[in-house]
Amino acid sequence: MDTLAIVILNYNGQPFLAKFLPTVLANADGHPVYVADSASSDSSVSFLKANFPAVRIIELPRNDGYAGGYNLALEHIRTHFGGATYYVLPNSDIEVTPGWLSPVLDLLKANPNIAACQPKIRSYNQRDLFEHAGAAGGYVDWLGYVFCRGRIFATFETDLGQYDDNRQVFWATGACLFMRADVFHQTGGFDGSFFAHMEEIDWCWRIQRLGYEVWACGQSTVYHVGGGTLHKSNPHKTFLNYRNSLFMLYKNWPADGRLWPKIMLRLVLDGASSILFLKVGQWRDVWAIIRAHFAFYGSLPRLHSQRNTLKAQQTKEVSLFPHSIVWKYFAEGKKTFKEM
């Protein structure tokens, strides 16, 4: 069994593989590098075979998104390659740096209770700034809205070393997610119904309910392009983010009798947020929010079953950020994590 498997999920990302895979291989520290291809229609697989013989290629039968794709790929590694103690899942548009692996692995090895971890995520194009997808570790507020140290809504902090510590957080980003392999498989992996976006946050919430911890490692840094597979301006991304946020909240919110009041308030706030899209003429995003709500209603029987199962398995209560990040940011004008 390998100590670490570096696993990149790819879908029609041949240009990103050409650009960033060499740095991953150069800084793999002897660990195997896998590319799991989700039935790409471009030349990704032939390109890999011709140019990167050291890469272990997994050809998946279809595109099941981030969640389903990694579920299939990591199970394949376990059953066909002998598995690994840890996985790291860098996006195909991640530029790694020398020494990026050791600090995170040292942290995981020192504390067996840490099941997920991330490095600092900085912007590839504005290299001093934290990047949208994860920044320096994430949190979830009491209404299920997510935010990060270093990035809250449209405010991106400059990395001045303020988050160079190792710290327990609520979620670690899927853009470059380190995880303990046995915990991933024990928990059934990601929820495939999410397809993409927030599946890692849902998984981090679930593993904390089982008593594990999630951390951010400030001694490791990578750079992320962002939107490599699905750009932020794509209405389908809006749909996935709004729908999956509701999925996650319904599945995991504590059984304290306040679930439905929170869901109803979220639905109202989601509706209000559509006004921002209307102001700039993004009608397709407004329709995406409406579709996300109806998709949530249609999934309630399955979500209710999942909620009951997770409740029966839970061994620990999990605390959320006790305030509304929306109110803090837009009403109180608090734009950085330190101000929160």
Give an overview of the whole structure.
With 340 residues, the protein is an alpha/beta fold. The protein folds into 2 domains: 2-224, Spore Coat Polysaccharide Biosynthesis Protein SpsA, Chain A, CATH 3.90.550; 235-331, no CATH class. Helix content is 41%, strand content 20%. It is built from 11 helices and 13 strands. The radius of gyration is 19 Å and the shape is globular. The chain starts with a strand and ends in a 9-residue tail after the last helix. Pfam families: Glycos_transf_2. This is Glycosyltransferase 2-like domain-containing protein. GO terms for molecular function: glycosyltransferase activity. InterPro entries: Glyco_trans_2-like, Nucleotide-diphossugar_trans.
- Taken together, the total number of domains comes to 2
Largest sheet: 9 strands, mixed
Percent helix range: 40-55%
User: What are the segments in which pLDDT stays under 50 over at least 5 consecutive residues?
Assistant: none
Which H/E pattern describes the elements?
Answer: EHEHEHEEHEEEEEEEHHEHHHHH
Query: What general outline do the C-alpha atoms trace?
Result: globular
Integer-rounded radius of gyration: 19 Å
- What proportion of the residues form beta strands (DSSP E)? 15-25%
Oligomerization state of this entry? single chain
Strand tally, please? 13
Give the averaged pLDDT, no decimals.
95
CATH superfamily of the largest domain: Spore Coat Polysaccharide Biosynthesis Protein SpsA, Chain A
Distance between the termini: 43 Å
> What is the second-level CATH architecture of the largest domain?
Alpha-Beta Complex
CATH class of the largest domain: Alpha Beta
For this structure, the CATH topology of the largest domain is: Spore Coat Polysaccharide Biosynthesis Protein SpsA, Chain A
Structural category is alpha/beta
- The total count of helices amounts to 11
